[in-house]
Structure formats: structure tokens, C-alpha cells
Write a sequence for this structure.
């Protein structure tokens, strides 16, 4: 038991005659570790991108609601009356009449 632990600590398993299969396993495990780290970084990037986009959606939604409420205020009759009075026009007191045109035969 001590002998195998010492051989691992000294690294003799890497330079012995049958070390080629040990190197293959070490390289394979190293490759898997690199792939795992790369996929973890990719997942983190996607999480940050999703968070940024959801914040942007919230901002755009609030801007839309704000714009819609401003439009509703501008479309109100009282607002239109104020704007028209500034230009010197007044609301008619007599209601509008329909003009009917009779077909000539």
C-alpha cells in the first residue's frame, strides 16, 4: 500500500514502461474537464444574457404603458378643448346636423 502511494507521489507511474495507457487516461480526463469548464462558462453567459433581456423587456413594457397612458390623456375631450382654446376656437353650442341628399330621378 505504501509503495503504491509513494509511486503516485513520485510520479513513477508516468515514466514507467507501461505508462502510455496512463497518459491516455490522464489526457482523456483533462479533455473532459476542459469541456465541462467550457460548457459551464457557456451556461453562465446564457443566464446573464437572459437576465439582461428580461430587464430590458421590463423597461420596454413600462415605457409602453407610460406612452399609452399619455396617449389616453391626450385623447380626452377636456385636453382637446384646452388645446383648441389656445388656438382661438370654441366648441359649438348647437349640435351638428346630418345633410341628406336625395337622389334625383
Amino acid at each position: 500500500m505504501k509503495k503504491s502511494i509513494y509511486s503516485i507521489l513520485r510520479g513513477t507511474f508516468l515514466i514507467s514502461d507501461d505508462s502510455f495507457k496512463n497518459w491516455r487516461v490522464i489526457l482523456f480526463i483533462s479533455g473532459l474537464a476542459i469541456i465541462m469548464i467550457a460548457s459551464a462558462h457557456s451556461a453562465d453567459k446564457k443566464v446573464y444574457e437572459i437576465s439582461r433581456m428580461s430587464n430590458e423587456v421590463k423597461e420596454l413594457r413600462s415605457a409602453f404603458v407610460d406612452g399609452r397612458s399619455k396617449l389616453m390623456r391626450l385623447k380626452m375631450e377636456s385636453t382637446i378643448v384646452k388645446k383648441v382654446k389656445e388656438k382661438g376656437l370654441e366648441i359649438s353650442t348647437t349640435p351638428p346636423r346630418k345633410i341628406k341628399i336625395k337622389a334625383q330621378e
The chain has a mean pLDDT of 89. The chain has four helices and no strands. The two ends are 121 Å apart (CA to CA).
